[in-house]
Amino acid sequence: MAAREKYDEAVVVEQLHDPKLCKVAFGKVIEHYSSQLYWQIRRMVIDHDDANDVLQNTFMKAWTSIDNFRGDAKLSTWLYKIAINESITFVNKKKVMNQLSIDDDESFLVNQLESDEWFDGDQAQINLQKAIASLPEKQRLVFNLRYYDEMKYDEMSKILGTSEGALKASYHHAVKKIEQLLGESE
Amino acid sequence: MKREDSTILEKYGKDPGFKVPENFFEDFNKRMTEMLPDVEITPVDVKPTMWQRLKPLVYMAAMFAGVWCMMQVFAHFTDTNGINTVSAVAEKMGNDKSNVEDFIMSGAVSDYDIINYEDSVMMSNEEDFAGDNY
Predict the structure, then answer these.
(1) Residues A94 and A131 grouped into a single domain
(2) Chain A contacts of B37, Cβ < 8 Å?
(3) In this complex, is the C-beta atom of A178 within 8 Å of any C-beta atom belonging to chain B?
(4) Predicted ipTM?
(5) Cβ proximity of A69 and A78 under 8 Å
(6) A163 assigned to some structural domain
(7) What's the whole-number mean pLDDT along residues A106-111?
(8) Nearest Cβ partner for B17 among A23, A119, A147
(9) Which of A20, A34, A149, A185 to mutate to probe the B interface, most B CBs <10 Å?
């Protein structure tokens, strides 16, 4: 088996703008980012098949608009932005399909979790996912990025276009609300 | 310092209980790479910004300015030191013979002056000696 080539972001970004090398370079991007983007999307859409579709859409969108990526921001920031936008669009579409208002929370996504073949968590995990899903969209995003990915606030600020102070406040509120909801469900 | 999410972390951990089919990511990467359509990539025409173009000139100007400043400072202190040295020696000298060595050290006395000085001292000593004998 050939040894996996070391991923060098600066080299890959340069290759992305070379018509001869761009496809190979994007293959490296997919290989490097698919896992981390998948988990971020999965925590938003909950279902594995949906996460698979959204991840596919994310990379497809990134590929078709690769010409717009000038390397001013980090590639990861750009990809996370696309993934988050795609996830939000997907969840909103699913709400419409389920005849829910856009303003309703995302708890409906968790309802199928118990019977999901790609979920092996216990009741406590279901309760935590329900509590996270009941948060407002922004708080939910911030909580997922901070709690599971331990993303720094300055990086998060670039992805979500919100000040670090506002993100810290969002995380604080999210944690308090989840603690309260989990306390009630016990 | 205690994390604000420590209560949730202790109780629920970081594993949300989600899993994926075996080799999901390997298969996904392969499938995704294969389905990429051909897109037209415009080679990036890297246009240097105004600052990037001026940077070498600004750095050169700063370097020359620095060298000029250093030379000015050096010249200033050399002049001042010169005056100080001469005036200090002149002040010290006076008529005191004990200052002869300092004067010699300052480089303001030639060998010829020293020989003359020593001759005059010897002469006066001889005169004194002759006077004592009378």
Answers:
(1) no
(2) 63-64
(3) yes
(4) 0.85
(5) yes
(6) yes
(7) 75
(8) A119
(9) A34
